[in-house]
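Hey, can you fold this?
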Amino acid sequence: MARALSTLAALGLLAGCGSSQDEAGIEVALRLRPPATPLVEGERRFTSDLGYTIRLTRGYLSIQSADLVACAGARRRSFSLIREAHAHGTGSPTRLGLGSVERLLAPPGEPRSLGVFSPPPGRYCAISFGLRVADEDAEGLPADVPFVGQTILVEGFYTAAGSPEERPFRGVTTASATGKAAMDAVDLGERRALLLTGAWGEAWFQGVELASLGEEQIGRGVLQNIASTFRVEAP
């Protein structure tokens, strides 16, 4: 499926050859940029705003959908074409049903394709994405830990400020979150590519009291932080 999508994006094929953009819309490829910071011995390490020194040793996030959001007051031509990025989930011209599990410990690398929108030409200002539980058909399910029915899982070790003792932590939740990745207003009237990127660890544990919170509270806190870190670029 991923290979077919890449071929589709590369060729720039529009549904219904010979039809106008008013009828078939345009193609807007959405790609996810992996973190630029290299791993340290297979871990992601950083210090939170609360003074915790953190070693993240395992982490997964379920992204279930992405929606292209028109600018307020923008006019768009309507059409009926529906193209899905994956067999999983429901798609529409401005919505991708992703069903994707992302590794929070992914190494640096080239951006990967999440799918292709087919929106009407118009002015767009953001991408809204749904973080919800992964089902059995999700792409990228981990083999090292059960993740079906979970939205996020983070595990590792922390050291509190002024303490010599390192302690384990775990965060996991079935809660949902909706993120909105802002971008400079873009007039989409031709085939384009949008790049989804995030802080990738810099703000994940802000305000999360690892020493006193339970697994569910840690999971919810990290989930909300991640939902707020993504941004979109239109190269």
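Oh, and this one too while you're at it.
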Amino acid sequence: MLKNRPMKALRMVMAAAAVAGIITGCGYRVHGRQSLPFTEVRIAAVENTTYEPKLQDRLHRALTEEFLRQGVHVSSAAGNTLSCAVRRFDIIELSEKKGFVTEYRILIDAACRLMDASGKVTGTAAVTSPFIVSFAASEDFGRLISGKEAAEERATADLATEIVGNFIYR
């Protein structure tokens, strides 16, 4: 029984090394707060060049939540300023049944730039919502609108994750 202990320990060490090698080989990295390029940011008012109402408010809120989730404090007095403009908002038909649309996809594009305290642009990003966010059509207009709004929330949250990742983990 004592003879097996060193062998089990060796197997566990080798398994841990293999897992670590696989994770680092796939491009995953662990980032701590001290490795962030900045710890505080101001988010300027989001410009909405689309006809979709409230999209700028949703993206501003989603950006704030994502920066906070990543450990970056959001403050109106911060030296770094993020400014974004929503350039495109499309609702695309995904599926149809008997001549009626049954499912839609939401697609959002935004252009963003990060400026330091002196106003110098330190980074730019043109981002498209990275995941397919869809919602089902409904004959009930209230359900259709609530489904669309929930899908917009998910799409702007996904977009904010992509934007923040572009500036923090470049």
